[in-house]
């Protein structure tokens, strides 16, 4: 089965269409298609890569038509110990437990926080918005408060600001400043504009320290504020563009 693109929106794969419509994730869509539960224009669709135009093709799952959901933009104060994933084969707690009881379409996390990290996490069914925030060219800044296992001297602070090369990767820091300290540990504010795996933890380790807690407190110009641990709230209309403010994309415009 094939479709001539014609005028209108660019064609996408069937699995991608179900994700963009806010029905489910792409991997879940592929499972639904494999199970024979998806039809396009009344015909059974078995190929997740089938190209179609959203808004033109009629898609149904289990006989129910799929329509575009209202766009949803959420902020979550992710607790430490939760996974940023929909399902975990080992049965560990995921961020979706924080959404229990809420009447929502499918929403996906915008980027990730690892299991031991906490703080501001965005979720949405607007994939274009999410992809813009995550695109390296956007240079969106993320601000973290980091507790480390020592009181840093100026030499260590300079190493944190300089970043490091680890396993062939250049890991950079936009800024690093001392917030407060006790006799044996300290809190540091660090700002990055990349999203490399364990980036801050690796920079701290290269500077001779160990991360005790890692809390994301801001994305772009959007602060976590006083949102309680594990709580979720919708972004206000005026907040939706805040995650993109201050990045390289905005600076170039």
Entry keywords:
9-stranded mixed sheet; 253 residues; alpha+beta; 4-stranded antiparallel sheet
Question: Could you characterize what this model shows?
Answer:
By secondary structure, this protein is α+β, with helices and mostly antiparallel strands. It is 18% helix and 28% strand. The chain contains six helices and 17 strands. The strands form four sheets. Strands 7, 8, 9, 10, 13, 14, 15, 16 and 17 form a nine-stranded mixed sheet that branches. The protein has a four-stranded antiparallel sheet with strand order 3-2-5-6, with no helix packed on it. The protein has a two-stranded antiparallel sheet with strand order 1-4.
Mean pLDDT, rounded to whole units? 90
**N-to-C span:** 42 Å
Unreliable stretches covering 5 or more consecutive residues:
1-7
Q: Specify the number of helices.
A: 6
> Radius of gyration, rounded?
21 Å
Query: What's the overall geometry?
Result: elongated
Helix content: 10-25%
Strand-and-helix sequence, N→C? EHHEEEEEEEEHEHEEEEHEEEH
What would you call the structural class? alpha+beta
Number of strand elements: 17
- Percentage beta strand: 25-35%
Largest sheet: 9 strands, mixed
